[in-house]
Every structure is written in C-alpha cells, then in structure tokens.
Amino acid sequence: MSTVEQHLTPDDVLAMPDGDRYELIDGELKDLNVSQESSWVAGEIYRRLANFVMDGQLGWVFPEGTSYQCFPDDPLKFRRADTSFIVRDRLPEGPTGMGHTPIAPDLAVEVVSPHDSHYDVTEKVADYLNAGVRLVWVVTPVTRTVMVHRHDALSSPRHLTVEDDLTGDDVLPRFSCRVADLFPPQAETSTS
C-alpha cells in the first residue's frame, strides 16, 4: 500500500483552528518558535512603529502574526512577520482583506526566538528580500542587536548594538529609536 504525501495550501491553514501558529513552506507547516521575550520585543517594536506611522498617516503597521503570501518563487508559500509596515499608497483602502496579505510589506521585522535556527532566519530574510521587501530588521534579544537588511543594498547588512540608533531609512524617514530601548531593561547586578 503506497501513501501519497499531501501538501497543504494557504487556505487549508487559514481553516485550521490553530493555523495562526504556522507558516507554510513547500506545502509543509512550519511551527513558529516564540518566547515571552521575543513576543514582548515584537510588541515594543509594533508600538513604536504604530505611534510614529499614525502621527504622520504614513501607512499601516501590522502586529505579530500577520501573514504574507507574496513570494513569486512559490505562490503557495506564506510567511508571518513579527511586525510589518506597508506604505499607505500601496494599500490605499487600508487593511480590509481577508486571509493572507498578497503584497510584500515595505518593512518586515523578524524577532529571533531562542529556538530559531540561523539557517531558518537567513532563509526567511532571503524570502522577504526576494519578494521585494525594501527593509528587513532581524532583532536578536539574546545579543541585544539588530541586523538591517536592505533590498537594494550592495553591501553587507548593518549590525547595530544597544549603543546605536535604529532608523527607518527611506522606508520610514525620520523614524529613529535607540536599539537598547527595544529590549526589556536588564536588572542591575550588584558587585559587593
């Protein structure tokens, strides 16, 4: 007796009661690794971006879990950004659609969880850049760093530490915050 491997579709995942926990890669479910700290950091980034974008009515900021089905190399693939932004002109009616977002965000933020592999994060960044995402921030709470990837960059990604400012470049001009402010305050250790 032979078994036929069944590949899921994005609509299949939407119909699942716990479908918001997954991405779909090559027809297979990919469980999202989350932690309390990575979720907090994603929420802090969302809050800062939403406040900035709302003041200038620049577009739409989406929280953790928004799914994007915008990958030309695999039309059935979808990814979930931890936070994302789409310029108002590209989504003039606002976030009214149902299901997966069919256009690439202008900014995608990936907050690395303790169980995320380097390979998976690198692959996700490549998927976003190949789909036309203009700016990708990879935020790593354990090292308190941010790697900034640009779609049009000819050089390596920029590595930012807690001493640096994170900016929105030309995607979100005038947005800026200290990298240190994206992470929970560290407890002071006494040396007595």
How would you summarize the topology of this molecule?
Blueprint: H1 10-15, E1 22-25, E2 28-31, H2 36-56, E3 59-62, E4 67-68, E5 79-80, E6 83-87, E7 107-111, H3 118-130, E8 135-140, E9 145-150, E10 158-160, E11 165-168, E12 172-178
Parallel strand pairs: 7-8
Antiparallel strand pairs: 1-2, 3-6, 4-5, 6-7, 8-9, 9-10, 11-12
Task: Please provide a written account of the structure.
This protein has one domain: Alpha-Beta Complex (tt1808, chain A). The chain has 192 residues and is of the alpha+beta class. Helices cover 21% and strands 27% of the residues. The chain is built from three helices and twelve strands, in the order H-E-E-H-E-E-E-E-E-H-E-E-E-E-E.
Mean pLDDT value: 85
State the secondary-structure class: alpha+beta
Order of helices and strands: HEEHEEEEEHEEEEE
- The CATH level-2 architecture is identified as Alpha-Beta Complex
Write down the CATH class: Alpha Beta
Residue windows where pLDDT falls under 50 for at least 5 positions:
1-5
Note the main sheet.
Answer: 6 strands, mixed
CATH superfamily: tt1808, chain A
How many individual β-strands?
Answer: 12
- Walk across the major sheet and give the strand order: 3-6-7-8-9-10
Number of helical runs?
A: 3
**Helix proportion range:** 10-25%
Cα radius of gyration in angstroms: 17 Å
Please report which band the strand proportion falls in: under 5%, 5-15%, 15-25%, 25-35%, 35-45% or over 45%.
Answer: 25-35%
